[in-house]
Amino acid sequence: MDTFVDNNTDAVSLAPAMALRKLYLLRFAFAAVWTALLFVAADTLGPLSVTLLVLYPLFDAACAVGDLRSAGADGGAAKRLYANIALSVSTGVALAVASGIPAVLRIWGAWAIAAGILQLAMGVARRRTSGQWAMIASGAISTLAGASFIAQSGKDGATLATLAGYAFLGGVFFLVSALRLGSAGRKMSA
Q1: pLDDT digits over 128-151, tens only?
Q2: What are 30-47's pLDDT values in tens digits?
Q3: Exposed / middle / buried, residue 73 (Cβ in 10 Å: 0-12, 13-18, 19+)
Q4: Strand (E) positions, the chain?
């Protein structure tokens, strides 16, 4: 009697993980470039820094849309992704009209807290997918960082440089998750 092995099942279960891997690599690359550019413009709210500040949450929203379309988000994950899209777009709009670095830090801080909670919940929901421990840690750190941005907004000499460090660290967490997803993918296809 012959045994039939359905390799398509592995390919189907591997596809969402590989889509996440590509998305996470893109997010790391974006964060690295964004961080370098913001460090150049971190002292003032000029055209470059405002553009970068608005672009970051809008990119986050676009990535959530990509996640919905390519990673096969289930009902619970989809709800969190929709919430993240609404939150990130709202944050982009708020940053576009913010006046002064303290206001930017308060808006960014509130976004980091809320987005961190969503990311933590998403990581927990996807915990069976390799590499999600980094997303869980990143979400938890984001909530703490958000509180620190709000606290910094009330101090003299507040700067946007801390946002660059936050974005880069978040990018590193995405890179770690992408690498873990890649190694899991190689194990599944072997």
Answers
A1: 766 678 889 999 999 999 999 999
A2: 999 999 999 999 888 999
A3: buried
A4: none
Phi/psi of residue 159, each to 5°? -135, 160
Q: Check: CB of residue 174 under 8 Å from CB of residue 22.
A: no
Spatial distance between the Cα atoms of 136 and 117, rounded to a whole number of angstroms? 9
176: tokens are 């770690």
Grouping H, G, I as helix, E, B as strand and the rest as coil, residue 127 is coil
Q: Which residue, among 187, 106, 118, has the nearest Cα to 148 in the 3D structure? A: 106
Reference 135, options 27, 49, 48, 35; nearest CA is 27
Residue 49, phi then psi, degrees to nearest 5:
-65, -40
Q: Encoding tokens for residue 182?
A: 């890649």
What are the tokens at 105? 């830090």
Q: Which helix (H) or strand (E) holds 38?
A: helix 7-41
Quick check: pTM over 0.70?
yes
Structure tokens at 113: 């807290």
